[in-house]
């Protein structure tokens, strides 16, 4: 058992993938064999666990849950105007569930599991497996538990395996977030029979085992994982969650140097480069296939901390909003990738994000500053995240330059990864910072829940407004079609633009370059979904 | 002989406080790093409660002395803890990554010596001549460029533009499989397995990063060779040998070079340990899975166990090397040391 | 490279030099004697000129952005081209000279002074002082130095002062060891004993008679370290722990520019890289010349 990283184990796996042409004596895979149905992907980040539920699992590792496990349901797929694929938030499709019903009061969701669904070891997927997996997700704490709670999934007693193939979720109150929350990567289904063999008193959820082994029913299994170097996915031919991927093997290489990644994709030595910088995206477009998808429900913003005295003055906040050279930032930091979020002409829709009414206008900025108690300007540290300096640094420099013209002196402070989260989100102590948040569930109320509600994690500006609190609480579970929804949401937008705890800059785009492979699909989780990948 | 053994033991005993010092300082240094690992590792959407949970899980809720005690206790059992960024035991990871760094460093030094020692000897035989000056300019130019810059430039020219070098993707192109692990050095393991194909593949991956490092280490080796040769050539025994009419070849290689070798080897040891610590940047550029890149990632993420493990590992290597150098030193120059006092 | 440990000079040293106008003659003699040293001094003069006069001479404000002129290749208007924010690379590279020299000189001066005092004391008096100091220095040296510097800067915050301190700390042991070895060899040498018998205090003998003998090898160390300090700061910048933006500094310019090489904007990294190389090169070459100048044995 276990992830055999030895050479023999790898070859054994390889011979399955290569079909009849078992190559026990071959010391290397000839270029031909490697080229046929192996897709090589490079990325700058590192996978640190195969188990999303584990404490400390980082974002890039979420893709393992997507590629190697199934959920009950998934989101549909749609074709974007540029011909690329994107997940479709508006449709929920079966993954391991064949069908589902919602009770009249909206509180009980009943799922029928596909009779043909099997795990990678050939055993049937049962409702008991689902129950065990869901219990695990709400019990282990940390991010998975928080994400489950967002959909109203709080306790094991909400989940029941009625029989082998029937599984029910009972909600405390009906919510539009419940079903979509079952389609995010978190509630993935593990083979509880195998997992239970590795349960100990100290480890009731087999965390240690699942950390290094994939025991799902998903499209791929991990046949090799060299932490910090590479991860090798191999297609699971027993997969029932969708059409089999074209690639038999997907090799994910971790290459820290951005310049190296660019050289590799440009020369065609790898087929896909994940999350490329905006500059590369705009320059490589045309040379190789580049997909830039605006990230749904996400905005890059300037966060003004309400704990910092000058920013408590609404005129100072507006002065800052008018002093931001939006156009230039969009050009030099985003290289035109993404969607502008300034110069809006009024709130007409409930689309989020949408442009703020502000534009770059130094005269207006001066006017506002003069009206404030800080007409003479002030000093403020301007914090950016070291890990995101590719867009944050040019943005901060451009803003810094304009603020200086108002007499606001800022010093740029690059904060390394570990400290960034603590300082900006947990302690919320950065007076002026660049921030980014994207909500997985694509509703404006969901965004406001995280970013504008008092004390919530992504509310880095310590913003508190009773009306917003009220509106978010009212809209969060309300169906979008409800007549009250749109007016309430529009009111939230209005307040947000007036109070300006976060000044929107632009909606970022996720850019991916492909050279010799097809089947890229954009997902809200912004990690690699390899289930449609094919060479060619 | 007995006296020498006692000296070795005494020196070993001296190394002990150094190791203890390193353990303590690395512990304190990691704790002084900014940021809260619990918040970092609790995940993206973690709230205060789950951060607290993570803190307890990581043992970071305990007091400093308690944490240190636990750390030392673990150390005593050979357990360096678990890295949070990679989710693996630190010992395992260091064991896998150290050979990668050592292989790179050793190959680089080999290349470097192959060029620098002859250059140094050449310069020493003609001090003050244009050859001497040219050698000096050449090696100085090598040490004057930041390694990450040289690395990227080499990739640009030899991989991106000309395509002569293989893709800079770590120790082996992905189409090759790692040779069965014996030493962890791919060149040695592949040779042991009689696998010429993989051996060449591993060598090709090594060329650019090794060249980058070699360029950087030319200067100290060449300069030390020159200095040591000069000092040897001006010494009494060479004068005597010259007076005795020995051939200049015999004098140069038979006497001078052999006497100059020790300081050169000493320098090599120093350069080696320094390079091992400094190839952090080269590893990053070439996606080399060594301990240097591991340490950088860990440091930026405030990954305590990984940083401590790395520092300790390097310190042990350094102390061992230093011991050898010191012993060699005291043997050649009896004026060093306070034993006589 | 700071791993360079000069072997102890074997030849018997002579009495300490007398301060006289002969020193200047000696400098001229050394310069005439060695064209490379002459070249090094000329290069050093250029560096100093750039550091002192640079900010007054440059054609553009090194911090002023101009998005419409971003990433322009070298031209008559912008000799070294412009960077991703449209800043003039030439102006930035020249202005950076002062800061870079400041960082390296401050760091090296700090480690020189601390290292000399510690090393001389340990070497002269020996005993427990020597043992304790040696252990502490060994501990510092046992750290992988670049990672130690990274750790210090990460822990204390990436300001210019902290970069200087970090660079100084990791260099102290090299000076201390060197001085200790030199002093240790000579503390019972004839000239030292003679000076002591003549009524000089220990500190005076140490500072005026023994220590100057340690200067020649230290000069080499100093000049190498000056260059190395710049490289160290550049390395820190590459990791992201360098000087804060938008300050112009060679290391950060090279580090950021390195990402642009593959996309064809070579001028971003090459020109600051050449400046950096020029400075490190100068310091390294200077080392030998300085040694010749301060070496008591070379005086005639």
TrEMBL record, chain A:
Residues 91-455 form the Solute-binding protein family domain. It comes from the Bacteria. It holds the Pfam family SBP_bac_5. It is found in: Periplasm. The keyword Transferase does not apply. GO terms for biological process: peptide transport. GO terms for cellular component: ATP-binding cassette (ABC) transporter complex; outer membrane-bounded periplasmic space. InterPro entries: Peptide/Ni-bd, SBP_5, SBP_5_dom, TAT_signal, TAT_signal_bac_arc. Its main location: periplasm. The keyword Kinase does not apply. Keywords: Signal, Transport. SUPFAM superfamilies: Periplasmic binding protein-like II. Coiled coil: none annotated. One of its GO terms (molecular function) is peptide transmembrane transporter activity. Residues 1-33 form the signal peptide. PANTHER family: PERIPLASMIC BINDING COMPONENT OF ABC TRANSPORTER, PERIPLASMIC OLIGOPEPTIDE-BINDING PROTEIN-RELATED. Belongs to the bacterial solute-binding protein 5 family. This is Peptide/nickel transport system substrate-binding protein. It comes from Albimonas pacifica.
UniProtKB/TrEMBL annotation, chain B:
GO terms for cellular component: plasma membrane. It comes from the Bacteria. Residues 98-329 form the ABC transmembrane type-1 domain. GO terms for molecular function: dipeptide transmembrane transporter activity. The chain crosses the membrane at residues 12-33, 104-125, 137-161, 202-222, 260-282, 304-325. It is found in: Cell membrane. Belongs to the binding-protein-dependent transport system permease family. This is Peptide/nickel transport system permease protein. It comes from Albimonas pacifica.
From TrEMBL, chain C:
Residues 97-287 form the ABC transmembrane type-1 domain. GO terms for cellular component: plasma membrane. It comes from the Bacteria. The keyword Magnesium does not apply. It is found in: Cell membrane. Pfam families: BPD_transp_1, OppC_N. This is Peptide/nickel transport system permease protein. It comes from Albimonas pacifica. The lineage of its organism: Bacteria, Pseudomonadati, Pseudomonadota, Alphaproteobacteria, Rhodobacterales.
């Amino acid at each position: 058992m276990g992830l055999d990283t030895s050479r023999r184990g790898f070859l054994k796996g390889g011979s399955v993938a290569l079909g009849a042409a078992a190559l026990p004596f071959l010391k290397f895979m000839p270029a031909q064999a490697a080229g046929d149905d192996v897709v090589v992907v490079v990325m700058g980040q590192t996978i640190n666990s195969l188990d999303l539920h584990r404490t400390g699992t980082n974002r890039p590792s979420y893709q393992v849950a997507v590629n190697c496990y199934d959920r009950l349901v998934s989101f549909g797929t749609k074709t974007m105007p540029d011909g690329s694929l994107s997940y479709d938030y508006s449709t929920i499709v079966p993954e391991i569930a064949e069908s589902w019903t919602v009770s009249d009061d909206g509180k009980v969701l009943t799922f029928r599991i596909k009779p043909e669904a099997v795990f990678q070891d050939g055993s049937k997927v049962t409702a008991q497996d689902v129950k065990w997996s869901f219990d695990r997700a709400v019990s282990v704490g940390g991010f998975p538990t928080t994400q489950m709670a967002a959909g109203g999934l709080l306790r094991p007693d909400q989940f029941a395996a009625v029989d082998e193939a029937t599984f029910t979720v009972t909600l405390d109150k009906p919510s539009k977030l419940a079903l979509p929350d079952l389609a995010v990567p978190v509630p993935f289904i593990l083979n509880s029979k195998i997992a239970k063999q590795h349960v100990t008193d100290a480890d009731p959820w087999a965390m240690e085992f699942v950390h290094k082994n994939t025991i799902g029913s998903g499209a791929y299994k991990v046949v090799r994982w060299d932490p910090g170097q590479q991860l090798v996915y191999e297609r699971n031919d027993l997969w029932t969650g969708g059409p089999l991927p074209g690639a038999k093997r997907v090799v994910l290489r971790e290459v820290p140097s951005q310049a190296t990644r660019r050289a590799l994709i440009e020369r065609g030595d790898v087929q896909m480069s994940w999350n490329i910088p905006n500059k590369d995206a705009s320059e490589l477009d045309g040379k190789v296939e580049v997909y830039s998808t605006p990230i749904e429900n996400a905005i890059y913003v300037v966060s003004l901390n309400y704990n910092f005295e000058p920013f408590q003055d609404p005129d100072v906040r507006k002065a800052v909003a008018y002093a931001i050279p939006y156009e230039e930032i969009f050009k030099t930091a985003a290289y035109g990738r993404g969607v502008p979020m300034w110069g809006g002409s009024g709130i007409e829709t409930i689309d989020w994000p949408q442009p703020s009414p502000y534009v770059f206008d130094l005269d207006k900025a001066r006017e506002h500053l003069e009206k404030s108690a800080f007409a003479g300007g002030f000093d403020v540290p301007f914090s950016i995240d070291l890990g995101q300096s590719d867009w944050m640094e040019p943005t901060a420099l451009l803003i810094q330059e304009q603020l200086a013209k108002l007499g606001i002196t800022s010093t740029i402070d690059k904060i390394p990864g570990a400290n960034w989260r603590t300082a900006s989100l947990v302690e919320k102590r950065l007076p002026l910072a660049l921030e980014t948040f994207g909500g997985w569930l694509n509703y404006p109320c969901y965004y406001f829940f995280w970013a504008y509600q008092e004390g919530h994690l992504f509310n880095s500006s310590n913003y508190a407004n009773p009306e917003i609190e009220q509106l978010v609480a009212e809209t969060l579970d309300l169906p979008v079609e409800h007549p009250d929804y749109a007016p309430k949401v529009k009111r939230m937008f209005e307040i947000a633009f007036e109070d300006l705890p976060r000044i929107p800059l632009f909606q970022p785009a996720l850019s991916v370059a492909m050279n010799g492979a097809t089947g890229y699909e954009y997902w809200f989780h912004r990690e690699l979904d390899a289930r449609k990948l094919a060479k060619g | 002989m007995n006296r020498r053994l006692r000296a070795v033991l005494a020196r070993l005993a001296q190394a002990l406080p150094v190791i203890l010092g390193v353990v303590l300082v690395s512990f304190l240094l990691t704790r002084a790093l900014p940021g809260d690992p619990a918040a970092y590792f609790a995940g993206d959407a973690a709230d205060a409660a789950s951060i607290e949970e993570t803190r307890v899980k990581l043992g970071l809720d305990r007091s400093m002395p308690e944490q240190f005690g636990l750390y030392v206790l673990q150390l005593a059992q050979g357990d360096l803890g678990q890295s949070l960024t990679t989710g693996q035991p630190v010992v395992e990871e260091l064991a896998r990554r150290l050979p990668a760094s050592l292989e790179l460093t050793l190959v680089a030094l080999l290349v470097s010596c192959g060029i620098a020692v002859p250059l140094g000897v050449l310069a020493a035989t003609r001090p003050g001549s244009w050859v001497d000056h040219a050698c000096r300019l050449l090696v100085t130019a090598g040490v004057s460029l930041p390694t990450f810059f040289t690395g990227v430039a080499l990739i640009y020219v030899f991989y991106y533009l000309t395509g002569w070098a293989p893709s800079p993707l770590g120790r082996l192109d992905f189409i090759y499989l790692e040779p069965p692990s014996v030493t962890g050095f791919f060149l040695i393991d592949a040779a042991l397995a009689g696998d010429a194909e993989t051996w060449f593949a591993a060598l090709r991956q090594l060329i650019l990063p090794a060249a980058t490092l070699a360029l950087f280490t030319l200067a100290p080796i060449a300069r030390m060779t020159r200095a040591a040769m000069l000092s040897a050539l001006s010494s009494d025994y060479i004068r005597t040998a010259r007076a005795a009419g020995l051939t200049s070849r015999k004098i140069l290689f038979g006497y001078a070079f052999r006497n100059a070798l020790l300081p050169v080897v000493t320098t090599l040891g120093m350069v080696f340990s320094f390079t091992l610590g400094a190839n952090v940047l080269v590893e990053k550029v070439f996606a080399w899975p060594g301990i240097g890149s591991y340490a950088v990632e860990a440091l930026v993420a405030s990954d305590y166990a990984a940083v401590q493990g790395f520092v300790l590992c390097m310190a042990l290597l350094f102390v061992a090397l230093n011991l050898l150098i010191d012993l060699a030193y005291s043997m050649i120059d009896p004026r060093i040391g306070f034993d006589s006092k | 490279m700071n791993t360079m440990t000069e072997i102890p000079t074997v030849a018997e040293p002579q009495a300490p030099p007398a301060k006289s106008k002969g020193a200047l003659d000696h400098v001229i003699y050394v310069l005439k004697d060695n064209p490379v040293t002459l070249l090094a001094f000329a290069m050093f003069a250029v560096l100093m000129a750039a550091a002192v006069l640079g900010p007054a001479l440059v054609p553009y404000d090194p911090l002023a952005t101009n998005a419409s002129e971003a990433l322009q290749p070298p031209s008559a208007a912008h000799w070294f081209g412009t960077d991703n924010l449209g800043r003039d690379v030439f102006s930035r590279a020249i202005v950076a000279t002062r800061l870079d020299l400041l960082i390296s000189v401050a760091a090296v001066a700090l480690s020189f002074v601390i290292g000399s005092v510690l090393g001389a004391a340990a070497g002269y008096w020996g005993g427990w002082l020597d043992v304790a100091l040696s252990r502490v220095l060994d501990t510092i040296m046992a750290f992988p130095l670049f990672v130690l510097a990274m750790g210090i800067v990460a822990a204390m915050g990436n300001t210019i002062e902290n970069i200087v301190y970090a660079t100084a700390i990791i260099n102290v042991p090299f000076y201390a060891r060197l001085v200790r070895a030199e002093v240790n060899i000579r503390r019972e040498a004839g000239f030292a004993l003679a000076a002591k018998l003549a009524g000089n205090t220990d500190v005076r003998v140490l500072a005026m008679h023994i220590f100057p003998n340690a200067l020649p090898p230290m000069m080499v160390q100093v000049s190498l370290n000056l260059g190395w300090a710049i490289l160290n700061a550049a390395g820190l910048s590459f990791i992201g722990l360098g000087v804060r933006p938008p300050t112009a500094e060679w290391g950060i310019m090279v580090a950021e520019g390195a990402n642009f090489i593959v996309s064809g904007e070579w001028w971003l990294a090459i020109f600051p890289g050449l400046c950096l190389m020029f400075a490190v090169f100068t310091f390294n070459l200077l080392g030998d010349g300085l040694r010749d100048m301060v070496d008591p044995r070379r005086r005639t």
